[in-house]
Amino acid sequence: MRLVIKIGSSVIAPGGRLDPTRVRSLVDQLDLVRNEHVIVTSGAIACGTSAIGSNHTPSQVIRMQAAAAVGQSQLMHTYEQLFFGKKVVAQLLVSSDDFSSASRYRNLCHTVEELLRLKVLPIVNENDVVSVRELEGAFGDNDELSALVARAVKADWLVLLTDVDGFYRRNGGRGKPQVVRRVDKFTAELEAECSGKGELGRGGMKSKLRAARLATASGVQVAIANGSHPEVIPRALKHQVGTYFPAQGRRSAGVPPALPQGKGRVFDTGRDARATLRRGK
User: Fold this and answer.
1) pTM of the model
2) How would you write the chain as a 3-class SS string?
3) Residue 227 pLDDT > 90, yes or no?
4) What is the pLDDT, as a whole number, of residue 14?
5) Which one of 15, 82, 92, 227 is CB 3.0 to 4.6 Å from 161, fit for a cystine?
């Protein structure tokens, strides 16, 4: 199988500091012999912030960009150490522009495909150093980015690892909210059940639902699960933990679909690409 594993900030850097032991536990769960993997990782800003502090500049966005520049190298160094002797890893830093330009999107798909053919494990993160739009929430802490990557590589599965056990439903105000084990249909009522963003990440459950909708429409199965649970990845693939979203479309890289942007706006990542394709560029 081909799996895209998205590791959220709250999983990789609980308390705002990178936790190599937590990451090692997740790496050890990957069946590197039988399956192909792409990791979409958050955590660069959290890692950088813990190293340089949080009050070095009057601009919040500039501070986050500086923290990402420091933290990304720490993040990749950790992954290289954890995969040493098991897999060669590659770093891919992407932005929304890579999904709105037909030529850049095609190059991204070809590069990832070649890396997988060479038995290299791609590790993807948004390019927070230069992509201000991502810092403002376009990718929702890499949730939607992971869905677009899963679509681009024609993945069988997208596993979204976070710090909660799955998608919770309030149960009409009666008793404690319960984890929904399977979601077959996306509705407005479903989004209304979502709470706010996490303390570290920029996503929240609403962005994970958007990611699940994007991915399942492209023929990808999706699971949202707690990254701190033992053996969470193999158990999520067996529908034993988390919330499962069955695939609803046919797997195809194609032109990427519309990607929801922060603050309720939508920018069409496929529009510019389709126009470019029509022009033959």
Assistant:
1) 0.84
2) CEEEEEECHHHHCHHHCCCHHHHHHHHHCCCCCCCEEEEEECCHHHHHHHHHCCCCCCCHHHHHHHHHHHHHHHHHHHHHHHHCCCCEEEEEEECCHHHHCHHHHHHHHHHHHHHHHCCEEEEEEECCCCCHHHHCCCCCCCHHHHHHHHHHCCCCEEEEEECCCCEEECHHHCCCCEEECECCCCCHHHHHCCCCCCCCCCCCHHHHHHHHHHHHHCCCEEEEEECCCCCHHHHHHCCCCCEEECCCCCCCCCCCCCEECHHHCEECCCHHHHHHHHHCC
3) yes
4) 86
5) 227
